[in-house]
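thought: user wants a sequence for this fold. calling inverse folding tool.
action: design(structure=
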């Protein structure tokens, strides 16, 4: 009989998990508390609790209690995939802002923000420069009287497109990853900073990183323009609030603030677990490869999508789900809980003594993480072998974008269409942009084009000239 798997949440992580269960002949039941997409799953069903069954150490089974329109139900599952996202609980650090309780304007968290309607003509203070802070400040900058964007650390602003107008995420290649592995992080940061400051000088725009801050990037195409136009004004961190104004760390005061929007992020939570699982799972370092809790004697509970990554999370959640379903089936093994707990305790002690940084707080490296998961399922592409067998494909896998097709070239879940998908991925990327076909349009040849065409002949001719005019060669030739 197929193992029954409860999939909690029908976002991208939940949908990939359902597919991976089906690929492995497991029987998924998806619970989604919203009713956004209808049909196949148990929609408008909230999972209230997930608890170990009394015989958990033998069976690894879970009791899952759900609620649908006020009606409670309990079902037994052989395994559980938690795909509830980690942006449900807003982080609202009001205690860090003296005087905020006196403030008479409107206060909200970015989670409550939907559209700029209702903010017209207001003076708005946005606190926190993450992706939400950047997006909301730019959007409101078009309608509000003034948007002030307060940041403690600053951030590097990356555009969605890069040189030549190509999508920046398509620039994540194995070749660049290889270079990054051999260069010290200081050198890498220096190169990146030079490149980013070439577009606009971050310091001049009030975005430069504060001394001692961690390297932080946000993605935003319009923030520099909004600052340039005066629609958004960068500010330091807030020292205190009065009834109507904000006093900043640099001593400046902004009067008549109507609205404060905290774009201060989220805290993870798993309200349906019992303690200590409930608290432990909120710490990424407690999770083996960000997926399996360290303290379970049976690996029948996985958390999918609970990671921060320097790249697309969608590709990673699919790989997590592929690995997890194979662990559930017993086709892949994870270390025993005693070993995982010993490692976790060691990490805890080192972090407490500040001898080690909590890596769980940083974004994981995209290709390293994906390759690591793929090596557990036997789906990591073997580049050397690929160069011998199929050099054209290997070239694209190494120098081209590291897309999810690469993990469908070999091993379980191999897809025959993967090769063609990789070789044609740029066509699909550019097709939606090329909506106007211009026959015989004049092409402005780039420097690299001229170098390619003329570089070799010019180099050969120069070498010939140098040889001919070299006094040494002349003297050698002149000798009898
Ligand atoms: C404002 C914002 C913008 C973002 N923009 C981007 C972007 O442009 N690109 C990008 O890659 N990522 C973006 N992200 C990150 C994005 O959230 C993730 O990439 C993606 O949504 C993660 O998918 P998920 O399935 O893991 O979680 P979610 O999409 O959050 O899905 C979780 C699902 O679980 C359900 N659920 C939760 N608890 C229960 C329960 N107890 N019972 C039943 N169902 C439950 C929820 O209703 C929800 O449908 C953004 C995040 C935020 C907050
Ligand atoms: N377009 C997109 O792709 C998009 C859009 C929105 C969100 N997202 C994703 O959604 C997730 C959440 O993003 P987010 O921007 O909401 O949160 P976030 O990335 O956690 O950023 C929150 C910011 O709030 C500030 N902050 C945190 N604690 C604070 C405190 N105690 N006091 C003052 N400031 C504090 C920090 O900025 P300072 O250091 O500057 O003060 C921090 O960078 C991320 O994964 C993000 O990538 C993506």
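)
observation: tool returned 480 residues.
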């Amino acid at each position: 009989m197929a193992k029954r798997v409860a999939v909690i949440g029908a976002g991208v992580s939940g949908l990939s998990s359902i597919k991976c269960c089906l690929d492995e002949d497991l029987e998924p039941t998806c619970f989604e508390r919203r009713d956004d997409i209808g049909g196949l799953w148990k929609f408008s069903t909230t999972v209230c609790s997930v608890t170990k069954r009394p015989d958990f150490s033998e069976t690894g089974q879970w009791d899952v209690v759900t609620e649908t329109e006020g009606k409670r139900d309990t079902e037994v599952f052989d395994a559980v995939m938690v795909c509830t996202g980690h942006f449900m609980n807003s982080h609202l650090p009001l205690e860090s802002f003296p005087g905020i309780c006196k403030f008479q304007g409107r206060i909200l968290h970015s989670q409550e923000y939907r559209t700029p309607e209702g903010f017209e003509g207001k003076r708005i203070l946005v606190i926190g420069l993450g992706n939400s802070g950047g997006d909301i400040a730019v959007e409101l900058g078009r309608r509000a009287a003034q948007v002030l964007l307060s940041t403690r650390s600053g951030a590097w602003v990356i555009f969605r497109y890069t040189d030549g107008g190509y999508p920046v995420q398509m620039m994540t290649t194995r070749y660049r990853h290889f270079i990054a592995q051999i260069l010290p992080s200081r050198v890498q940061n220096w190169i990146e900073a030079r490149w980013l400051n070439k577009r606009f000088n971050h310091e001049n725009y009030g975005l430069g990183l504060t001394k001692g801050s961690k390297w932080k990037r946000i993605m935003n195409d319009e923030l520099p323009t909004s600052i340039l136009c005066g629609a958004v004004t960068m500010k330091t961190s807030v020292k205190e609030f009065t009834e109507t104004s904000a006093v900043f760390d640099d001593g400046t005061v902004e009067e008549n603030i109507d609205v404060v929007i905290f774009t201060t992020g989220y805290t993870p939570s798993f309200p349906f677990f019992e303690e200590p699982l409930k608290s432990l799972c909120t710490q990424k370092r407690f999770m083996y490869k960000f997926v399996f809790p360290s303290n379970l004697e049976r690996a029948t509970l996985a958390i999918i999508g609970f990671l921060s990554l320097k790249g697309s999370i969608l590709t990673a959640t699919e790989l997590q789900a592929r690995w997890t379903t194979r662990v559930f089936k017993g086709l892949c093994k994870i270390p025993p809980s005693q070993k995982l707990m010993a490692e976790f305790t060691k990490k805890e002690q080192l972090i407490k003594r500040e001898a080690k940084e909590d890596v769980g707080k940083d974004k994981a490296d995209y290709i390293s993480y994906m390759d690591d998961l793929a090596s557990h399922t036997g789906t990591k592409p073997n580049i050397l072998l690929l160069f011998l067998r199929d050099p054209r494909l290997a070239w694209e896998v190494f120098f081209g974008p590291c897309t999810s097709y690469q993990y469908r070239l070999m091993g379980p879940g191999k897809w025959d269409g993967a090769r063609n998908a990789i070789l044609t991925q740029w066509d699909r990327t550019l097709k939606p942009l090329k909506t106007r076909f211009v026959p015989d349009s004049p092409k402005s040849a780039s420097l690299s084009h001229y170098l390619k065409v003329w570089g070799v002949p010019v180099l050969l001719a120069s070498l010939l000239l140098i040889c001919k005019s070299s006094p040494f060669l002349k003297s050698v030739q002149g000798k009898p």
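thought: summarizing for user.
answer: Here is the designed sequence. The longest strand covers residues 45-52.
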